[in-house]
Amino acid sequence: MAGLERTGLYDLHLELGAKMVPFAGYEMPVQYPMGVLKEHLHTRAAAGLFDVSHMGQILLTAKSGRLEDAALALERLVPVDVLGLGEGRQRYAMFTNDAGGILDDLMVANRGDHLFLVVNAGCKHADLAHLKGGMPDCDVGMVEGRALLALQGPLAEAALARLVPDVVDMKFMDVAIRSWDTAELWISRSGYTGEDGFEISVPDRFAETFARRLLAMEEVAPIGLGARDSLRLEAGMCLYGHDIDEATTPVEANLTWAIQKARRKGGAREGGFPGAARILGELAGGPARRRVGLSPEGRAPMREGTEIYAAAEGGAVIGAVTSGGYGPSIEAPMAMAYLPAHLAEGDVVFGDVRGKRLPATVAPMPFQPTSYKR
Amino acid sequence: MKYTEDHEWLRAEGGLVTVGITAHASEQLGDVVFVDLPEAGRAVSTGDEVCVIESVKAASDIRAPLDGEIVEVNADLADNPGMVNEDPTGKAWFFRMKVADMSALDGLMDEAAYKALIG
Question: Cys staple from A152: which of A32, A193, A301, B48, with CB 3.0 to 4.6 Å?
Fold first, then answer.
């Protein structure tokens, strides 16, 4: 495919029979011969290996050498308590713009004397420029020459521990640097499936061997972007560019759990991030609309773009689905939508599916219970 | 068996025509999770959208391959849409229709022509 980048595992994907598709400027595996449904179920039952090398890995170091300075500088770009993040710990964050919208969502890890960020593939170049512009007292660099793999599922720990035994000591959202062979692995206990699991940054020259060692294990199967999407949707997680974007605030997106007390009104470092007036205002007064889960009745999925109405007939559109599909583990359709904030769990709304208004219940998320190792 | 360019198969049986989608189409769709079937008794013209198939990836239509009337639908598909992947040309038929002009079947592709189409 012309003009598209490839990850270091491209040849392995082809060898495994992957169907490759363009995604965020890369040729990526959307599914393997197992198929999306079985890949999804395999991840929830055993362990799935995902190539997420297209994502951006960024290092931030304060020119002073002090971690606090890097943390405080990053806090000028995110509504998140970075200073309070302990060494060896990671947390979810988002870059906001002056209107309170979301430029990207990301993971931030405290690695002792610097911060390590993982950002979305489609935003990574803009994010790098944004960080460089917003953090003049820091060295900001995109990590080159490293693949990123995710190993997810209830057997992920057992599988990875055969190669790196002491990962069993890590808890959800811990980060650690470990050796395998002569390679330095950057490991976090996190992921995008709702399952226990790890994301592992591997030097390119070791990536294929490392992936093959994992895939040789009985419980590990390669999983494509198709199942990655249905897994994250069951887990209630946002997909940037769909469920969140520059037109949605973190409060509208129901991501207020990611805005710690220190950055809220009355907190030690209240505000001081782009869009703070809007975001703190919505935290206090409530947003006009909010991202909610929807459980459509019956089996028909409500896809992205499905318009939502309050009534079975008549009335105006009250919102739209931002992600929707079928949940293989819950064996039912599921969706996320932005709806007026007065709607509560259990309320019934109607989605226009091919001209028919079908009922859907406002539902709690995640749709599928998570199983993190706390 | 006859075939349409929309990857449907048609089989004439006892004066009726049974319609389903080809194995090639079911592979392209991926795992089917929902099938919206028409009402029996509906009169259709060639090209009318009569069924919707939703896979894990996307929704697609089945169109009436010929003029006529839908006389029977495969209700089992609503409960078990995965049959479309398991047995697309057997148990996973979609509907049977009474065709206005059976000779219209002759204008459709035979197996050799369909195989050439899908390469």
Answer: A193
